[in-house]
């Protein structure tokens, strides 16, 4: 293993790779309490190893309150940056006020390079 998990996890975690001093986790699909465990494993594993974790959310089509809760938990473990959240995720973050807590970025490059 080269870092946090970098293989396919039941379709939810597409991949992972090093980026600067951090780790990028690429997620996809619908994220709810039934599909969340592989993403939780990938994010927590990355948070244990890296000072910064980027969640590439470009492929995420849905996230519920359990997904939001996971992001807030990981936010407390490491520097978490969310890259390329779609309109549905941005609405979820705005409605809950999570957009004032989480670090949102237009793409992975901006998330990795952010101060």
Question: What would you say about this model in short?
Answer:
With 115 residues, this protein is of the alpha/beta class. Helices cover 37% and strands 32% of the residues. Strand 1 (13-19) and strand 2 (22-31) form a beta hairpin.
Write structural notes for this entry.
With 115 residues, the protein is an alpha/beta fold. 37% of the residues lie in helices and 32% in strands. The N and C termini lie far apart (28 Å).
Quick tags:
115 residues, alpha/beta, 4 helices
What proportion of the residues is helical, as a percent range?
Answer: 25-40%
Query: How would a textbook summarize the main sheet?
Result: 5 strands, mixed
**Through-space gap between termini:** 28 Å
**Helix and strand sequence:** EEHEHEHEH
Radius of gyration over alpha carbons?
12 Å
